[in-house]
Design brief:
single chain; 468 residues; mainly beta; 3% helix; binds beta-D-fructofuranose; glycosidase; beta-fructofuranosidase activity; Glyco_hydro_32_C; hydrolase; ConA-like_dom_sf
Length: 468
């Protein structure tokens, strides 16, 4: 260990911070969130030795994007999570400015982390190393050091290794920026996770006819799904459009044919993965039974994140719920992982005129609405409105107070909405679209239905399931 240990400071931060965070009425009761400090990307999501492991970008020392460690939770069922020993701290020269995002693999029974060591220089320059760490018997991790330096032809923005094995060979996709400052996804291959060779660029500016595709692509994830291949990633610098790409940075998916021999991915258009206000840097893994499960960060960098009121309580951000992915009719469908149904308490049904509908407690709630629809008001702090083109989600800017809007365009038949204190996840038409958003209501927060039509409503209060 080259750099001075920050363990005492981390321990103090957790001891002081956790009680304050848990006492905050906005602290989630069934979504994973940091016990103190700032959490961002899900990392190292894997089903290994009978449990799910979810690591996360975590600055325990403050609500800012400095000092990125890897926190670690595990779960038997994707519903209840347990704290595991913190996995990585930036304590080596090669990761001194952050143990940045990455993935986990099962290397012959050894849980192995692949992450980016981020290094910034005094002159403003930076570099990045792709690094390994292996799990010890006591659940701690030992770093194995860098295995891939910055590839030639790219700036210091090369990061977020997602590694998987295919027919005996390891593959890695990396987010990158080329020297002309254009976003790319790079592919590497290896026999042993240590020696990697470049297979070239598989997506980004100038590939598959993509022009103006932004200056940096972060957090790529490439996987086979229902007879196709899907690439998920986060292109920074995509132009805003009237109804999409309205957040500072979006998360997108594209599907097509991936050819391992030719190391090429011929894909179709980009689609926004989630149309809400907060969603970024998602990562997927395979469940034990083969389902492809996605978890995202319910936050977005560089927007209004630093104005969220939970910062005053010393914590910031939460994960989305785990979602099952399917590919059908040229679309990527997302539904809440079926395990989440375990959270449901008794079921209620209601049918009648919207104006007479029960007012629901939004603290921990799931509800379903079938057509025809009405507007849904979440504690006066977030509104979901149906219009001719689809859905509009509205809330006030934390900075200016003006109304901000996000859109999902298409015909709406059905809504399934999950609420947890300061978040809502809106699943449209059994997963054709999703809108994930944070909001900061006064509690107890109420959901009200407004409109002049009849509605059919099914709802459940959800039980809490805090990380233990
Ligand atoms: C995405 C990201 C990654 C990086 C990490 C740092 O949110 O910027 O590209 O590895 O966060 O925390």
């Amino acid at each position: 260990m080259l750099l001075p240990s920050r363990w005492p400071a981390v321990l103090q931060a957790v001891m002081k911070g956790q009680p304050r965070a848990l006492a905050d009425s906005h602290y989630p009761q069934w979504h994973p969130a940091p016990v103190t400090g700032l959490m961002n990307d899900p990392n190292g999501f894997i089903f290994f030795a009978g449990r799910y492991h979810l690591f996360y970008q975590w600055n325990p020392l403050g609500c800012d994007h400095r000092y990125k460690c890897w926190g670690h939770w595990s779960s038997a069922d994707l519903v209840c999570w347990a704290h595991e020993p913190m996995a990585l701290m930036p304590d080596e020269e090669y990761d001194r400015n952050g143990c940045y995002s990455g993935s986990a693999v099962d290397n012959n029974g050894v849980l192995t982390l692949c992450y980016t060591g981020n290094v910034k220089f005094d002159d403003g320059g930076r570099t990045a190393w792709q690094c390994l760490a292996v799990e010890n018997e006591d659940g701690s991790f030992t770093k194995r050091g860098p295995v891939l330096p910055l590839p030639e032809g790219y700036t210091g923005h090369v990061r977020d290794p997602k590694v998987w094995k295919h027919e005996g060979t390891w593959y890695m996709v990396l987010g990158a920026q080329d020297l002309q400052k254009r976003g790319k996804v790079l592919l590497f291959a290896s026999d042993d996770l240590h020696r990697w060779h470049s297979c070239g660029e598989i997506a980004g500016h100038g590939i598959n006819g993509l022009a103006q595709a932004g200056y940096m692509w972060e957090c790529p994830d490439l996987f086979a799904l229902d007879g196709t291949h899907v690439l998920i990633c986060c292109p920074q610098g995509l132009a805003r459009e009237p109804h999409r790409y309205l957040n500072t940075y979006p998360a997108v998916w594209m599907s097509g044919a991936f050819d391992y021999q030719a190391a090429s991915f011929s894909h179709g258009e980009l689609h926004e993965l989630d149309a809400g206000f907060e969603f970024y840097a998602p990562q997927t893994t395979l469940a034990e039974d083969g389902r492809r499960i996605l978890i995202g960060w319910m936050g977005v960098p560089d927007g209004e994140e630093m104005l969220q009121p939970t910062r005053a309580r010393g914590w910031l951000h939460q994960m989305t719920c785990p979602r099952e992915l399917r590919y059908r009719d040229g679309k990527l469908w997302q539904t809440p992982a079926r395990e989440l149904e375990q959270l449901r308490e008794s079921e209620h049904q209601w049918r009648g005129h919207a104006s007479a509908a029960p007012v629901l407690d939004a603290t921990r709630l799931e509800f379903e609405l079938s057509a025809p629809f009405v507007n849904v008001d979440f504690a006066g702090a977030l509104r979901l409105c149906l219009d001719d083109g689809g859905l509009r989600l509205e809330r006030a800017s934390l900075q200016t107070g003006e109304t901000l809007t996000r859109y999902w365009r298409g015909e709406v038949h059905r809504l399934r909405i999950l609420c947890d204190r300061s978040s809502v996840e809106i699943f449209i038409n059994n997963g054709e679209g999703v809108m994930s958003s944070r909001y900061f209501p006064d509690h107890p927060a109420r959901v009200r239905f407004e409109g002049a039509s009849d509605i059919t409503l099914r709802y459940w209060s959800l039980r809490g399931c805090m990380i233990e």
